[in-house]
């Protein structure tokens, strides 16, 4: 058999000098969709085939069709895995590994760990890991919402073969405010003024032009501003929404 290859095409000759021609192309539309098309023909027969595959976060699917001079056949395939733990219940995944880790960041969707699929609406995803060596399960911090402050971003473990490791990543939800505070006369509150809550705990200070930056675990209804000369006024935050993208002007009432 002699085979001459021209890029994706090939022409073959057998001992009876019978020629056959093959041509094919394959590629991907994006990181989740792939395809392939092939055609072949000799003096007596011909055939065409095509495949279209989609990688979902919970399952991989594919559709194939082939045709020759006598018949047309098609097939659909699906592959993935089903896991269950007391902490997560049933989980579907396109990860097909004997040893896996379930990563959770509670109720935050669309977060990836290492090269994992994105988390579901409960914050779960599955990552393939290697047994008997230390694995680093790392969260992609660029995907974390602005109002979330992680308490840990990497967890290390050494699993045995065929283990299912469960790791939850804790976080705090932060209320962020950028306020520009004025007094009842419309003047900026003095720089250096202290800000305290109802328990007289120090929260922060006012900078130039009356700007106050706040990062709070819980939203207070009121805060109290004490100027360097002892003057005191009250900030009412009941109707103020947290927002770390723009400055909001607010009046400090006596």
UniProtKB/TrEMBL annotation:
An individual GO BP term: pilus assembly
Gene3D superfamilies: 2.60.40.2070, Outer membrane usher protein FimD, plug domain
PapC-like C-terminal domain ranges (all copies): 179-237
Pfam families named among the record's database cross-references: PapC_C, Usher
Xref: InterPro entries: Fimb_usher (IPR000015), FimD_plug_dom (IPR042186), PapC-like_C (IPR025949), PapC-like_C_sf (IPR043142)
One Gene Ontology CC term in the entry: cell outer membrane
Gene Ontology MF: a single term: fimbrial usher porin activity
Protein name (Swiss-Prot/TrEMBL): Fimbrial usher protein
Protein's organism: Proteus mirabilis
Gene giving rise to this polypeptide: fimD_14
């Amino acid at each position: 058999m002699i085979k001459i290859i021209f890029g994706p095409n090939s022409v073959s000759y057998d001992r009876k000098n019978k020629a056959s021609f093959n041509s094919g192309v394959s590629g991907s539309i994006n990181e989740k969709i792939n395809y392939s098309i092939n055609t072949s023909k000799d003096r007596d027969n011909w055939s065409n085939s095509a495949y279209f595959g989609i990688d979902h976060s919970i399952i991989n699917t594919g559709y194939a069709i082939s045709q020759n001079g006598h018949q047309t056949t098609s097939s659909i395939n699906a592959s993935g895995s089903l896991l269950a733990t007391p902490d997560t219940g049933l989980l579907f995944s396109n990860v097909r590994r004997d040893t896996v880790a379930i990563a959770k960041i509670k109720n935050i969707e669309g977060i990836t760990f290492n090269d994992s699929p994105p988390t579901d609406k409960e914050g779960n995803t599955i990552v393939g890991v290697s047994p008997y060596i230390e694995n680093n399960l790392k969260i992609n911090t660029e995907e974390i919402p602005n109002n979330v402050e992680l308490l840990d971003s990497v967890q290390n473990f050494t699993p045995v073969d065929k283990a299912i490791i469960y790791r939850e990543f804790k976080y705090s939800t932060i209320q962020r405010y950028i306020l520009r505070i004025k007094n009842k006369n419309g003047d900026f509150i003095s720089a250096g003024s202290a800000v305290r809550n109802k328990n007289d705990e120090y929260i922060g200070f006012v900078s130039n032009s009356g700007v106050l930056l706040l990062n709070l675990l819980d939203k207070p209804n009121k805060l109290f501003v004490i100027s360097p000369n002892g003057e005191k006024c009250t900030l009412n935050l009941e109707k103020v929404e947290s927002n770390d993208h723009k400055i909001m002007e607010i009046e400090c009432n006596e």
